[in-house]
Protein: Enoyl-CoA hydratase
Amino acid sequence: MKKTEAELLENQWDVENMEVDPEVLARYVRYDVDAKRHVATITFDRPDKLNAIPVAAFERIGDLVREAEADDRVKVIVFKGEGKHFGTGADAAELGHYIGYKAGTKRRPAQRQRILPDRNVLSSGFTRPIIESLKATICQVQGYCYGGHFQIALSADIVIAAPNARFTHPAFRYLGPAPQDMYHWIEKVGLTTMKDVMLTMRAIGAEEGERKGLVTKVVPLDELEKWVDDYADAIAVMPLDSLMMGKSMMQVVMEARGKGLGAMTGWVGHGWATNVSFDEGDWNFLKERREKGIAQALADRDRLVAPYFRLSESRSSE
Structure:
């Protein structure tokens, strides 16, 4: 009898204590290098869960980006997701635990318990290595691009998307307009769109993303991989020294425009956001998840707003 994923993961993934077997991480985040084409590929492989992955897997992504950056065979790093979606961020079962919330504990984690995870995971763990990579980075996006996966796309040099791609961070629903990579939001989509998305908690479609500067190019779904390959091959023609020197100069300009300070607001501000106080009648994700389960909690949250502002396509027309 074939075992379910839950059975296979037993003793391999301790959700509350954020401990995951390295074999599980390697299965969910695959890494390959095509030396002939000078391309490293990081693939999210948990399609039955919309490519939601453990928080520890995002740290693995940062490690793989650093590995590719130091590999002279690699000029381009491609991020892609198996199945219908690019990815939906960290597995919702872990949310809250990584900053210290434990089952049966009513006391809120101290700010000092939030600072290091926010800095080391949200910033230094995976977005910073991508943003500061001296190799070219490309995202191949179809379907949902939410949460940590959205932060990857926001941090990448180039985003090629299918028409059905949707971009946002669900943390806006859990915490309000939390400062998730706010600097890069403003740089890529502008202040007006950033406020629109953060305050209404909606997703950006592929075509809107292309108009606003988040998406490099929208292409038919059946041509998505071919377009990404063509972009990677075009970049790989450039000498490695030229590429890395050029990316270094881009970093200088980004620092001059406030990248470093902007990155700090992400992990400093997130500590405030995760300490939000809920009044009676407010929608509280952790409470709803505990009482109803993840799927029902998110379904109920989507139904509170008009279809335009919902994150799930399956509920968008109800």
Observations:
- The mean pLDDT is 86.
- The domain at 5-276 is CATH 3.90.226.10 (2-enoyl-CoA Hydratase; Chain A, domain 1).
- The longest strand covers residues 29-34.
- The CA atoms of residues 133 and 219 lie 25 Å apart.
